[in-house]
Write a structure and sequence with these properties.
It is a single chain. This protein is of the alpha/beta class. The chain has 9 helices and 10 strands. The protein has an 8-stranded mixed sheet with strand order 3-2-1-4-5-8-9-10, sandwiched between helices. A two-stranded antiparallel ribbon has the order 6-7. The two termini are 27 Å apart. Bound molecules: NADP nicotinamide-adenine-dinucleotide phosphate (NAP). The site of NADP nicotinamide-adenine-dinucleotide phosphate (NAP) has 25 residues, from helix 1 and helix 4.
């Protein structure tokens, strides 16, 4: 199995490092080729650099580690290549105002996940994941004892199987928050199952289980 990682910024590079450390093959892509090539070289034989087109074409799963606004351009441009793939969406509806203050970019109650699902072509296997921790915490929390939880949300069986494998390979405990309708719970700002919803705490499976008890997971 190969996972394409589109975007090698804070989230994409952290996930790439964890997946390779866990034995997964990754193909990396972004706009800045030199950054992609440097990361691929650093990660060794399980990683390679490619164009966005080649990365998506050759992958089974595609992590879109880019901002929501970039997805609005990328997904329509590569829609035919995404069909049939597991598409992993870490996006949060977060932006920054002129003074650098963090702000919500979508109306209250509208999840970034629902926007991404609406952009995707039929036949993709969508899962929201890898966005429930801040990038520094994600980079620093793999293979802890007890394992740190990464929540995910999906309605799709193939996507669920794939994300469970990838989260475990990355050195975390997967925990399903629910279907896509629950995506807002694992997004920030506002999601109770996002790291910010736990006041910055990186939770383990006991905390995750009690936080989702009674919500049908
Ligand atoms: N940062 C966090 O703490 C955090 C936490 C949870 C979730 N998230 C979510 O994760 C996503 C990524 O965040 P980030 O902080 O990792 O962003 P980032 O550091 O700004 O990285 C964005 C990446 O997207 C790439 N990119 C931009 N336009 C592209 C295009 N047209 N084609 C291919 N690649 C393109 C950039 O490549 P170039 O550098 O080559 O332009 C860069 O590698 C966002 O949706 C965010 O909401 C972030």
């Amino acid at each position: 199995m190969t996972t394409a990682i589109v975007g090698v910024g804070n989230i994409g590079s952290a996930v790439a490092r964890h997946l390779v450390a866990g034995g997964e093959s990754v193909v990396l892509t972004a706009k800045d080729e030199s950054r992609v090539q440097a990361l691929a070289k650093e990660l060794g034989p399980l990683a390679r650099a490619a164009s966005v087109e080649d990365a998506i074409s050759g992958a089974d799963a595609v992590l879109l580690a880019v901002w929501l606004d970039t997805m609005r351009e990328l997904i329509p441009a590569y829609a035919n290549l995404l069909t049939g793939k597991v598409v992993i969406d870490p996006s949060n509806p977060i932006g920054f105002d002129a003074s650098g203050q963090m702000m919500r970019t979508l109306p209250e109650g509208e999840s970034s996940g629902s926007v991404v699902v609406a952009l995707l072509p039929a036949g993709t296997h969508y899962v929201k994941a890898f966005g429930t921790l801040g990038a520094d915490a994600l980079a620093a929390s793999a293979n802890r004892d007890p394992l740190a939880v990464l929540f995910y949300a999906t309605d799709d069986e193939a996507a669920e199987k794939t994300i469970e494998r990838l989260i475990r390979a990355a050195g975390f405990e997967p925990w399903k928050a629910g279907g896509v309708a629950t995506a807002g719970r694992i997004e920030a700002p506002g999601g109770d199952l996002h790291q910010y919803g736990f006041n910055g705490e990186v939770v383990d499976i006991d905390r995750a289980r009690s936080a989702t008890a009674g919500s049908g997971t």
